[in-house]
Description:
Layout: H1 16-25, E1 32-36, H2 42-53, H3 60-71, E2 76-80, H4 83-93, E3 99-103, H5 104-112, H6 116-139, H7 147-164, H8 185-198, H9 200-209, E4 212-215, H10 223-232, E5 241-246, H11 260-263, E6 272-273, E7 275-276, H12 281-292, E8 308-309, E9 317-324, H13 329-347, H14 350-353, E10 358-361, H15 364-370, H16 374-383, H17 403-406, H18 408-413, H19 424-433, H20 444-465, H21 472-481, H22 489-496, H23 513-526, H24 530-539, E11 545-547, E12 556-563, H25 565-568, H26 575-578, H27 586-593, H28 599-611, E13 614-624, H29 627-637, E14 645-647
Parallel strand pairs: 1-5, 1-6, 2-3, 2-4, 4-5, 7-8, 9-13, 9-14, 10-11, 10-12, 12-13
Adenosine-5'-triphosphate binds at residues 36, 38-44, 247, 250, 277-278, 553, 555, 612.
Amino acid sequence: MSTDLILPSNxxxxxxxxxxxxxxxxxxxxxxxxxxxAGSGKTRTLVEVLxxxxxxxxxxKGGQLALRLRMYGRSIRVITYTKNAxxxxxxxxxxxxxxxxxxxxxxxxxxxSGFNDDIRAALIALKEIQFEKIRFEALAKPRGITPVxxxxxxxxxxxxEAIRSIAVFIxxxxxxxxxxxxxxxxxxxxxxxxxxxxxxxxxxxLKDRYPIVLIDESQDTMKGVLDALMGLAEPxxxxxxxxxxxxxxxxxxxxxxxxxxxxxxxxxxxxELQMNHRSQQRIVTLINRIWVAKLEGRxxxxxxxxxxxxxxxxxxxxxxxxxxxxxxxxxxxLGERWCADQMRVESGSAAWNDGxxxxxxxxxxxxxxxxxxxxxxxxxxxxxxxxxxxSGSGENKGPAVAKFLLNELAELELCxxxxxxxxxxxxxxxxxxxxxxxxxxxxAVARASRxxxxxxxxxxxxxxxxxxxxxxxxxxxxxxTAKIFEIDHRLLEAHADKSAPPTAPTRGQEESKLDxxxxxxxxxxxxxxxxxxxxxxxxxxxxxxxxxxxxKGSEYPDVMVVMDDVSAGGFLISYDKIFGGKDLSDTDxxxxxxxxxxxxxxxxxxxxVTCSRARETLALVLWSSDTTxxxxxxxxxxxxxxxxxxxxxxxxxxxxxx
Length: 658
Ligand SMILES: Nc1ncnc2c1ncn2[C@@H]1O[C@H](COP(=O)(O)OP(=O)(O)OP(=O)(O)O)[C@@H](O)[C@H]1O
């Protein structure tokens, strides 16, 4: 396969929409797997197909299909990975009663909710399978079922008994459910997969309601549900037609099949999108080369279409910066600023100057350090490790106990001018929105006194706000004292408690939730006030910082990918191994030997995803444990030309004036 192609046209994929419409309207219809690489315009293709299949855009066979769907009260179902993607597709599609778009969780719950006896049976069956697996594995070992294993087995038996006693199961796709009968997200997917495999009625209901199901990001779709649906779509003409859209090069979660293309039945159609409409030529050639790279430890096949850039996008700038990972975190951040400065000089793009380029780091802590909100992030992670960081699903609310700091306080802050002046009109609006005006005393004297109390609290808040040295604890004190909002009692109690925080546990030492949260509160109240706003922005996805994993589906003009294995501290990903600064471990070699997924496979895909987010310029910053070895390997790889690679100098870093 050649990597650098001369392009005849931007329209080489123009026939794919019609090709897919043909498969869906054949008699019997034919399932398909659409290979759609990064920036290939999957969503546009999907929406255009749906428009034709539902009679919005004139299409002879599509019009007939729409008529049949309408006659039998059926619709086409589209399953996407995030709620954001649901909104994008619905937005582009407009009002269309013949198409239902949802996440897989919402889809599964829609199918099974209310069938409480079936859900119960599924959950018990799944627990019994788990029980048998643990028992079987334990019996195969010389020590047999040890007391610890027996405890695990007893726990499962108790869980089965608890499930038996539940009459009604509850679930909400957009949030955690609590209380008796509450199902976790994975329970719903597992139960649906089990029921589709074991309950013919559910299969009939599904086919009858949704004869066509199209699944976006199928490479990351939970394999249990995907397998059940793929089984239902066989043989052709069974009543269910599937359309899978995906890019196995962009698989970053472990839920999906490790090599989906190889599992696609041979009688399915496999159309391909060959264009990359997003990125400049240099970025497209880089991702093409990355994907076909022959690397030691790679088990993942290099199958997939080579992409073509648009004829007018013949530019693009890529630089790889390599520095020593032994530098302190602070120096790494300064080093990355130096890299951004080099990008500014070489690309002439003002974004690199103004810090408007998108920084992608491997892990939330690294992002928090680069975004100067590490104290607040660390504190939030202690309050609720599962809710402190954006998840990529678009629903990031932060720890529920800190809701006041993330919502009401942010609104209050907007009522304060730069000089600490309070905009009373805005303030009244905020108080009204939170129902605080309704509970004002009716009596005129009491009311005046209450207003004075609130204003006093707000004024003190305003003064503290404009002082960047204020801590979060100091900022909220007057707001709490004046009881301006209704606040979670846990926050109130924590703020009133002036005791010192418990000491952090040592490695391997257990810590109670109470102690962990107390440490979180103390750290939060002691954190510098300006960090809170930065943290809120990050949580809401409005920051120029993100982790590698949450950028699925996004694109940015200028991207810096920070590759720092040591600070990230994980073991599943290692950029240094890909770039040659670190040797493969024995486990990597063993896994590669038996064809099991390796660190190299996972890291390569993540690198593919991050690089393919860039439209114009891309800076890769590698913090390596052996810069000399890495630089030599990089030279051999052929991914970059010599003048695209820079060694990051030792600190102090000097930048050039713009
Ligand atoms: N046919 C087209 N002509 C011109 N631009 C297009 C076309 N299709 C898509 N684009 C543009 O290319 C960019 C990438 O499209 P899109 O985000 O839909 O790709 P994608 O396939 O979802 O990519 P990824 O899987 O990498 O997230 C967008 O800016 C989009 O507007």
